Amino acid sequence: MISKLAIGTWLIGEDKSKEKEEIETINYAIDNGIKIIDTAEMYGKGKAEKLLGRIIENKNREDLYLISKIYPHNAHTKEQIKKSLFQSLDNLKTSYLDLYLLHWIENDTNLHLVVETFEELKKEGYLKNWGVSNFDVSDLERLYQIPNGKNCHTNQILYHIGQRGIEYDLIPYAKDNNLHLMFYSVLGHSKAYRDEIINSPAIIKISSKHHMTPYQVMLLFSLEKEGTSIIKASSIKHIKELIEVTRLHLDKDDLEQIDKVFKKPLNKVPLQMI
Q1: For the chain, does the N or the C end have fewer beta carbons within 10 angstroms?
Q2: Contact 144, 137 (CB under 8 A)
Q3: Is 60 exceeded by the pLDDT of residue 97?
Q4: Which residues make up the annotated site Lowers pKa of active site Tyr (predicted)?
Q5: 3-state SS string over the chain?
Q6: What residues contact residue 191 under an 8 Å CB cut-off, 6+ apart?
Q7: Is the separation of the CB atoms in 63 and 34 below 8 Å?
Q8: Fold of 5-261
Q9: Bridge partners, residue 85, by sequence
Q10: CA-to-CA distance for 110 and 117, rounded, in angstroms?
Q11: Is 43 a catalytic residue?
Q12: pLDDT tens figures, 232-250
């Protein structure tokens, strides 16, 4: 099992013409060691979960680590939370999730209620663990003041070479509190960001030096951190390229070159999310 990589399913299951290739790609990833699969009720309004359910129904469930997420507006009552979870379980054709995340926090989010309900669902066997997504340090500090808030297993956040704000305080805070991090959009969260990064002379130089693609360099950069990087691959060719990264490394000089162009934050940066 490649524990540093997870399969992402955002935008999957929404276009019938792409379905065959999406199924083949996810199957290839699972069969080649990526057993962590990330989805959400938001993705395609359940279509991603349903497609994933069809893919995994004939696989050994115990070999997989399934993650889904709940909309904050579906987390105002225990009944809403349970309804969302049970719909996700039905879509995924499974009796439990390995990890269930609150997708983001809103001003009216009742964290006491969310934690209490997640803990109940965990005791009832529907969840192995629960966590959050898009939580900044101040959000985590608020969470940790709640009874059982420290049982939060994971925080899933945006992170890539061009967006390094979490290095200033969130990554150290997570380490101090034994909180697992998952990184999404590790290949850039917009075409503008991706183009800026992959066309950077520093990234091109590193790519050439190690006979890698710029995307492999970007993924390797996130893998240097303690956490799990989520990748969404649109083809078997692409997923092969990304899996190969787990056998590669960036050296000290590479990281220094990256730091010169895509600088570490020197002060607090507001948490970005998509």
Answers
A1: C
A2: no
A3: yes
A4: 69
A5: CCCCEEEECCCCCCCHHHHHHHHHHHHHHHHCCCCEEECCCCHHHHHHHHHHHHHHCCCCHHHCEEEEEECHHHCCCHHHHHHHHHHHHHHHCCCCECEEEECCCCCCCCHHHHHHHHHHHHHCCCECCEEEECCCHHHHHHHHCCCCHHHCCEEEEECECCECHHHCCHHHHHHHCCCEEEEECCCCCCHHHHHHHHCCHHHHHHHHHHCCCHHHHHHHHHHCCCCEEEECCCCHHHHHHHHHHHHCCCCHHHHHHHHHHCCCCCCCCCCCCC
A6: none
A7: no
A8: TIM Barrel (3.20.20)
A9: none
A10: 11
A11: yes
A12: 877 899 999 999 998 889 9
The CA–CA distances, whole Å, from 264 to 3, 186, 259, 269 equal 26, 16, 6, 11
| Residue whose structure tokens are 């070999």 | 63
- Name the token pair of 140: 């985590």
| CA atoms lying within 13 Å on the CB side of residue 140 | 29
Q: Which of 61, 72, 63 is nearest to 96 (CA)?
A: 61
270 has a pLDDT exceeding 60: yes
The pTM (predicted TM-score) of the whole model is 0.95
- Annotated binding-site members for substrate: 103
Q: Taking the mean position of all CA atoms in its chain, how far away is CA 217?
A: 18
Annotated binding site: 103
Q: If we measure between CA atoms, which residue out of 67, 24, 17 comes closest to residue 43?
A: 67
**Per the structure block, which two tokens stand in for 169?**
């305080």
Catalytic pick from 43, 100, 126, 159?
Answer: 43
Token pair recorded at residue 200 = 């950077």
